[in-house]
Amino acid sequence: MENLETAIAQIKQELPGLCLMENEPMSAHSSFKIGGPARALAVPSDVSSLSKICHILKLNKLAPMLLGNGTNILFPDEGLPELFIISTEKLTKMFLLPDGAIYAEAGVSLAKLSSFAQQNGLQGLEFASGIPGTVGGGLLMNAGAYGGELKDVVESVVYYFLPQQTLLEAPAEACGFGYRTSNFKTQGGCAILSAVFRPEKGDKDQIAAKMRELNEKRREKQPLDLPSAGSAFKRPEGHFAAALIEQAGLKGYTVGGAQVSEKHSGFVVNKGNATSKDVYDLMMHVRNTVYTQTGVFLEPEIIILPPDYALKDETPDAPIYRIDVNEETLPEE
Ligand SMILES: Cc1cc2nc3c(=O)[nH]c(=O)nc-3n(C[C@H](O)[C@H](O)[C@H](O)COP(=O)(O)OP(=O)(O)OC[C@H]3O[C@@H](n4cnc5c(N)ncnc54)[C@H](O)[C@@H]3O)c2cc1C
């Protein structure tokens, strides 16, 4: 905490023009609309100020948390003594490269990326048009839907690697993409800055029709009228989380203001005044009930902060992500 205060003072001194929000409620930055204040939120105007913030944090033995649209995170009610870096305000450039690929910065929304591809007659990103995240958060999670995943269309990723304080570019094959995971998630220490996507050439009208069809499906099946963070649990191998939850009789199950959606059992929704503890307790109950009834462990897809508040007890490897400054950790080449 002391280190964080020193770092914040240094950041203010060295980057006087930086937009730095202090004690900012994270409920305002989360699709769940849940979360107490984070100590600070920085909005770097470019890569050089982002690198500078990371450098100061590292000097103080701290790591930043990157934040996209906050559509996959449960922030704690009591707040967090952390400095978050927001990508969505300034890191939003997107353009076509001379060879026809798309360059997009971390803060570009997946919806915009998908529309941009469609407008340029490029197919393969239709699945992403309804995912409410950003390029940065999407790549870290290897976001996907309806049979598509970002890993299928991304060619390379540029990221700031905190332990070495260098900018690196990794081809997609070196990013360790898997089902809702990547090296960025499992190894930590990476601030994704931009990526090159290479969708295939296609017919604009057909691409648009596909996007409409998928978004219609989403509206029909998902509780988009209520705050949530998307699917609460990953799809366990050979099963569907929503079906297991429904079969366990948990559709509509409620703890405080949190509820297993009555429209889609894979979603946990905030009915109005849910706390992070409500969501956490609900997810624990769901996971334990499903495990007792079926022997299948549901692993959270939502990132629950802080790490020691995560569904950790009997789950073999509850995945919790935070950027860890670990000198030993090197990206896979
Ligand atoms: C209604 C709804 C529907 C959804 N549907 C889908 C779906 O169909 N498929 C799917 O995969 N997901 C879905 N999601 C979940 C979520 O939108 C995705 O996981 C998305 O990719 C998260 O992006 P984000 O920008 O919001 O990331 P955030 O929630 O802001 O962050 C997610 C993680 O990425 C890290 N991160 C963010 N930006 C960076 C960066 N630049 N560098 C390094 N780390 C970073 C954060 O620290 C955090 O650990 C849905 C969510 C909602 C609310």
Fold and architecture overview:
The chain has 333 residues and is α+β, with helices and mostly antiparallel strands. The chain folds into three domains: 2-86, Uridine Diphospho-n-acetylenolpyruvylglucosamine Reductase, domain 2; 94-205, Uridine Diphospho-n-acetylenolpyruvylglucosamine Reductase, domain 3, CATH 3.30.465.10; 232-309, Alpha-Beta Complex (Uridine Diphospho-n-acetylenolpyruvylglucosamine Reductase, domain 1). Helices cover 28% and strands 23% of the residues. The protein has helices at residues 2-14, 47-59, 110-119, 135-141, 183-187, 204-221, 241-247, 276-294; strands at 19-25, 37-43, 65-67, 73-74, 80-86, 94-96, 102-105, 122-123, 144-145, 148-149, 154-161, 166-171, 190-197, 200-201, 228-231, 254-255, 258-260, 267-270, 303-304. α1 (2-14) packs antiparallel against α2 (47-59). Mean pLDDT is 90; it is low at 312-333. The structure holds flavin-adenine dinucleotide. Flavin-adenine dinucleotide (FAD) binds at residues 31, 65-73, 87, 106, 131-134, 136-138, 140-141, 143-145, 184, 190-192, 222, 224, 228-230, 303, 321.
